[in-house]
Fold these 3 entries.
Entry 1:
Amino acid sequence: MKTINKNVPINNEIREKEVRLISSTGEQLGIVSSKDALRMAEEKELDLVMIAPTAKPPVCKIMDYHKFNYEQAKKEKEARKNQKVITLKEIRFSPSTEEHDIDIKANNARKFLQDGDKLKVTVRFRGREAAYSQNGLKILESFAGKLEDVGIIEKPAKMEGRNMIMIMTPKKS
């Protein structure tokens, strides 16, 4: 079933002279005047809803508008429930971070990647440390090497201001 915009004209809001009418069962009733279409909808105690306002002539359907809105909201809620939200976790280093500390942070990062989260790995340079950016690059390469079984590098290491940033994503199973 197609989604209908919430701001569609219904019943007396339809100002077109002629509309292409579809019955509540889905059969084509042809092109009729909007007054006749509205009268048919009222006889069945349903609403006349314009489902394709850009068509020539516009397409209207006889349906229970409130029930339709309820079903659409239910479908949208179900779709939101099933979607996976990917969060971005960040791990920070300094250029003087020791190997043991990198191992500990790699273990934490492994959990993040296994949970399906993206990982932003940052090396922060302060003061004169920025002159030794190759140290930060070694740290990021070492870190990525420890996680190559669970993650891949989406964005390689790159200096952005005083930070060197690398982005990793989980490997597809």
Entry 2:
Amino acid sequence: MSATIEIPTAEKSLAYAMKNFADYNHWANCTLVNWLRTKPAEILETELKSSFTTIRLTLIHILETQRYWYSILHPGSHYSGQDFDGDLESTFDTLIAQSQALAEYVETLTAEQIQSETLVESPWFQCNFPNFEYIMHVVNHTTYHRGQIITMGRNLGFTDAPMTDYNFYNVMAK
């Protein structure tokens, strides 16, 4: 008896990877937020020297950037610009909801849609890249700022940061 193993095409592998990265991004943001919820809110509003002066403001930057790229990937979504200024709890809730919406939308994309190009014309730049480039960008951008938040937390005395590495997600968290 011989077994047949289906080897996925490059297109299917790319689609799987993008969907997995979007799911990872949602999981990692949930993990980070759940950790931050164990900390006193006033400490998360402490001003520090960083790209953004507080952990809440860094979370808002992550949220707003995800909202922007979601609007690029999902033409039917509405984006009105960077206007979110919620308190800490609403920042947590909105970031998790937005990360989930991004992951759910990427899950609906076909391999062809993930590879198709989308023209972006903004006040800052113009580009016409495949959608997988935008997915990778938003996940990478968010990962970068999650790392900043961990470092900010370390500067505030937090020594119990969660593991949010992509490989940890694949091996332990899925």
Entry 3:
Amino acid sequence: MGTDIIIFIVAVLFGIFIYWRESNGNGAYRFINKIVNSKELQMSADNPKGFVYKQAFIPRLIFIVSIVLIAALILEFLTPISVFASYYGVSAFASFAAGSLLGTYLANIVIKSSKVIEEQSESLEDKFENVVEKGKEFIDDLKTRDTKVVEDTSEDIQTEPEPKVNEKSARDRLKDKGLM
């Protein structure tokens, strides 16, 4: 079980490497395309499509499995390692194919997300600056509101009616009634 995990991790890295290389240039795919297709059917010069780069699932799967199968056949016939003679060899073959396919999709996610981050970096900076400015305005509003509230309450206190001089106090009124 340990060797299968190691083979799977190496295969994921291999898939990432294949996808990354084809995203930088697709010379091998163009060469095969020129050999196989007629002049009218050949891909245009600005088409970035490769064996795994910008391909659908089925062509990508076929390419990965055929590359791994060719490598397994070379191992089978040129070395004393027998890949297809036991369950472990077939399991390693399947693990390598699945890991390579998974690696291509992981590389696709990483490359697309890095492109989106690069495109959005300027707008993110602008958004961050807007947030900072709005925060400063909010803090300034809080500071001015506090002083306005203090001024409003001081005006309310000053506008209260002052006691009239002509009226008697409560003590005097109680004395007049004879209760004190």
